[in-house]
Amino acid sequence: MGYHLEGALLEVCTCNVLCPCWIGEDPDFGTCDAILAYHYEKGEIDGLDVSGLTVAMAGHIPGNVLEGNWKVSMFVDERASDEQMAALLSVLQGEKGGPCAELAQLVGEVVSAQKAPITFEVTEGRGTIKVGDTAYAEMEPYRGPTGEVTQLVESIFSTIPGSPAYVSKAEVYKLNEPNLGLNIDLKGHNAIQGTFLFDGRGEDVDRRIPAVRAGTPTGSSVVSVYGVLTHACSRTSQPVPAPHGLAGGVRLGHAVDLGAVALRPLS
User: Fold this and answer.
1) Cis omega before residue 263 (within 30°)?
2) Is the dihedral of CA 13, 16, 21, 22 positive or negative?
3) CA angle 191, 14, 193 (to 5 degrees)
């Protein structure tokens, strides 16, 4: 049956703005240590409803993002049932195929997976993520001369493939995760916001990937797990209409309809 997930992303890392990982370059300081959260406004996995839940990941990327070998700790919304937690983890660990499986191929080790209270808020473009006592971040998007949010598209790497990433700066980024050996307290570093639609149903995704790879220039860094993903996901994930105040539509805040997605502040 597969999965269908729609929602929003908040992400912060230790790199400067803009994180070089998104264009396939090495991290600014040798490693990229991040916290990211996916809020599923609408979601179904093998017929199981996971709408309204959030999953966060703390990650240590030891070098170039496309070379993999990430170490991650996973945190599932404490409101999830054991069945919902198992389903969400199976998707994020690549067991259900589809676009999420491509990202999972870059992970070398999942060091822990646990439930935690997670706060995910987007209000007037300002994002806040809190994961228990482990992580806290506040971010604000950059804006162009028209007031619309600065977007990154067609990047070699993306945590929301198929959708534009809204370039942001984290005013606060705190992460204390002993399982990864990380204790971070930074200001003014890279952040990303965005929306996503991941569809892992129907046609076998794996059968499409070789065709995409075959059309890639020989020797290009695009011939990598995530390079294939960013091209293949034009079929396996779809961009969600962007909100005004982030990139055009209506302003975020309360309950805001983004066409296919509505974002609400969670407590």
Assistant:
1) no
2) positive
3) 15
